[in-house]
Every structure is written in structure tokens, then in C-alpha cells.
Specification:
With 391 residues, the protein is an alpha/beta fold. Among the domains are: 199 residues, Undecaprenyl pyrophosphate synthetase, CATH 3.40.1180; 37 residues, no CATH class. Helix content is 64%, strand content 9%. It is built from 13 helices and six strands. Strand 3, helix 7 and strand 4 form a beta-alpha-beta unit. The two termini are 26 Å apart. It comes from Vigna radiata var. radiata (Mung bean).
Length: 391
């Protein structure tokens, strides 16, 4: 097994250094040939480029393939400054890089891809920049829904992760439309984190758990109080042979009381026993009241026991209410621009997830970075699986 893995890594490394070099040359030749020989040669070279890429993915697929890759798209503004581009053009170039990486991931067999598109902290930037990013986000979401887009080609379902109330109305409308239109897709999943931070997600999950537990306690309390109340009242009334649940019993009880009162009063006045009968009647009433009182005491004690109950929030409850509950935890986290920090992204879900941080800015990231990240994942796969089982 060890020798097989070493051979796999060795062959894949050869494809990485030689195959990718050839791919880059083909791409460069493709660009130049388009200008001179037209679209036919360009299409042929595009097909050759795709074939070589699929060959590399076939070799990678011999080993374990990650099911979920997350990206922190860092370095768009620095890229624009580096290339002397206008403000906002760096993010446009970053969207093109995202489209290419999504295609590579789906060709490799990755089902879930998560991208950190916009943090809640980004709202602290200049209002003009925030507005520009919101408008760009709206346009790119609409582009994703076009008929010939990558989303329709691979049957991708879109999930938007974060606090949607913080978005502008046009962006929120685009988000709702994209979610609705792609709801039937089930082959691939793209999770776009907007208006998101991991701390906000955790707080939201805990709040939802508290609401659920409070509702459960209140429902249980109302059920128990109702049961105890009916039981106590029923026992008290049955002391006088009265069935609370029977309408006929109610009528019979009222009629019997009236008849009994008339007979008692008449007999008492005729026989001089008025005081004795009244005393017996009062004695019977006192006994019924005592039974009712005991039932109410039990009810009060039951209420006290219910109030003393403390609901327990478990780990599974919090995970169930996470925004990211729609996908498994990431297998790889890739952050561009060489920054080896999470920046408040998926803190809960990345406890056993390796971080790969190439120095390339996000618009510069490409196929070679993805392959290298997958190779590192495969090399540490068994160790990571062991850690997951222990956690």
C-alpha cells in the first residue's frame, strides 16, 4: 500500500511538472494561433488542453479525492494595484479565476465547493467600495444563471451562506432567485459565503438552539400543567360521583343538586332536622373542597418541578443549526496570497482540515495550485481520517 501511494505521488508529480508545463505552452500557443489561423486551430488546442487536464485528474483519482474544498479568495485588490488596474477590476479578474477553479474541481470529482466571497467585516470599508462590490456580486450571480454557464453545465446547486438581511435589496433578490432556480440541481453544490463570519454563524446557531429548547420546555410545561390540572379537578369532582367529561353527568349533577336541596329543605322544615341536614351537606362540600385543594397543591408542586428543569444543548444541536449544515466539513482549505490564517472563516468546520496557502494572489491562482493542494491532502489522508474519528 505504501509503495503504491509513493508511486502514485511520483507519477502525479511528473504530470504536475511536465504535463502542466506542456499545458501552459499549449495555452500560450493557443493564444497566438488564434490571431493567425482562426478558431479551428484554437478549438483543437482547447480540446488538447482539456484532454491533458483530464489525464492528470485521472491519475489523481487513483488516490482519495476530496469531497469538499473551501477557498478564501484573498488578494483581488492587491492584484489590481500590482497590474495598475482600476478599482474593482481586480475582483472581476478574481471571478474569472473562480470560474476556472470551479471547472477544475468539478472535473476532478469534487462535489462541494465553498468560497468566502464577502465578510461581514467588509461592510466597514468605504461605502463606495461596498456599493461597487454589491453591484458586482449581483451581476456575477446573474451571470451564473445564464443558460451556457458552468452552473447549468454541471448541474450545480447554489447555497448562499450568511446573514442575508445585511445585503442590499437587489443582491438579496438575486440570491433568492439563484437559490430557487438551482434548487432542483443535485450533482454539484456551490456554497457562497456572503455577509458571513464564523463567529456570527456560531452565535446564530446557539440562538436558534436556545429558541428550540425554550419552545420544547414551554410545550412540555403546558402539557404537564394541563394534565395535572384536569387530573386534580377530575378527582375532586368525582368525589361527588361527577364525571367532568360527560355532558349528561353535568345535567344530572345539576338536577340532582336541585332535587336534593328541595327535598332536604322540605324534610328539615317538616321534621325539625334542618340543622343536621345542612351540617351533613356542608360536611360533604368540605370533603370535596379538600380533595380539590390537594389536587391544586400537587399542581403547584408539579409547576415548581417543571420550572426547575434545565434544557441541555448538545453538540449535535449546534451543528444542526449552523449555516454550513447543508454540506460536510471541508477536506481542504485553500487561501491565496500566502496568508496562513482563517480570517474568521469556517472556524467550527476546519478542526481537522489542512490549510494550503500559495503565495499567488487570487486572480493568479490556477490548476497547478489545486493539484498541489490535492497531493498534500492525499499524502496526509489517513492521518486526517484518524484525527476525524478521534474528534
Amino acid at each position: 500500500m505504501g509503495f503504491t501511494l509513493i508511486r502514485l505521488l511520483y507519477c502525479t508529480s511528473l504530470w504536475k511538472f511536465y504535463g502542466l508545463s506542456w499545458t501552459i505552452q499549449v495555452s500560450q500557443l493557443n493564444s497566438s494561433m488564434r490571431k493567425t489561423t482562426g478558431n479551428i486551430v484554437g478549438q483543437f488546442l482547447d480540446g488538447l488542453n482539456c484532454y491533458l487536464r483530464r489525464c492528470m485528474f485521472a491519475i489523481l483519482s487513483v488516490g482519495p479525492v476530496p469531497s469538499h474544498i473551501a477557498f478564501i479568495m484573498d488578494g483581488n485588490r492587491r492584484y489590481a494595484k500590482k497590474k495598475n488596474m482600476e478599482e474593482g477590476d481586480g475582483h472581476k479578474a478574481g471571478f474569472n479565476a473562480l470560474t476556472s477553479l470551479l471547472r477544475y474541481c468539478y472535473e476532478l470529482g469534487v462535489k462541494y465547493v465553498t468560497v468566502y466571497a464577502f465578510s461581514i467585516d467588509n461592510f466597514k470599508r468605504k461605502s463606495t467600495e461596498v456599493q461597487s462590490l454589491m453591484e458586482l456580486m449581483r451581476k456575477k450571480i446573474e451571470e451564473l444563471l445564464e443558460q451556457e454557464s458552468l452552473i447549468n453545465e454541471y448541474g450545480v446547486r447554489l447555497h448562499f451562506i450568511g446573514d442575508m438581511k445585511l445585503l442590499t435589496d437587489p443582491v438579496r433578490a438575486a440570491v433568492e432567485k439563484a437559490t430557487r432556480v438551482t434548487a432542483h440541481n443535485n450533482q454539484r453544490v456551490l456554497l457562497i459565503c456572503v455577509a458571513y463570519t464564523s463567529r456570527h454563524e456560531i452565535v446564530h446557531a446557539v440562538q436558534e438552539c436556545c429558541k428550540e429548547k425554550l419552545n420544547e420546555v414551554q410545550a412540555s410545561k403546558e402539557e404537564k400543567i394541563t394534565n395535572v390540572a384536569f387530573s386534580g379537578i377530575d378527582q375532586g369532582l368525582k368525589g361527588n360521583d361527577f364525571d367532568l367529561l360527560s355532558q349528561d353527568s353535568c345535567k344530572e349533577y345539576r338536577n340532582a343538586i336541585k332535587a336534593c336541596s328541595t327535598e332536604v329543605e322540605s324534610a328539615a322544615r317538616n321534621d325539625g332536622l334542618f340543622e343536621n341536614n345542612i351540617g351533613n351537606h356542608i360536611s360533604n362540600d368540605t370533603e370535596a373542597e379538600t380533595t380539590l385543594y390537594n389536587g391544586l397543591v400537587e399542581l403547584a408542586e408539579e409547576r415548581k418541578d417543571i420550572q426547575d428543569e434545565v434544557p441541555v444543548i448538545k453538540l449535535a444541536d449546534i451543528e444542526k443549526n449552523m449555516y454550513m449544515a447543508v454540506a460536510p466539513d471541508p477536506d481542504i482549505l485553500i487561501r491565496s496570497s500566502g496568508e496562513a490564517r482563517l480570517s474568521n472563516f469556517l472556524l467550527w468546520q476546519t478542526t481537522t482540515c489542512p490549510l494550503y496557502a500559495p503565495t499567488a494572489l487570487w486572480p493568479e491562482i490556477g490548476l497547478r495550485h489545486l493539484i498541489w493542494a490535492v497531493l498534500n491532502f492525499q499524502r496526509h489522508y489517513f492521518y486526517l481520517e484518524k484525527k476525524k474519528k478521534q474528534s
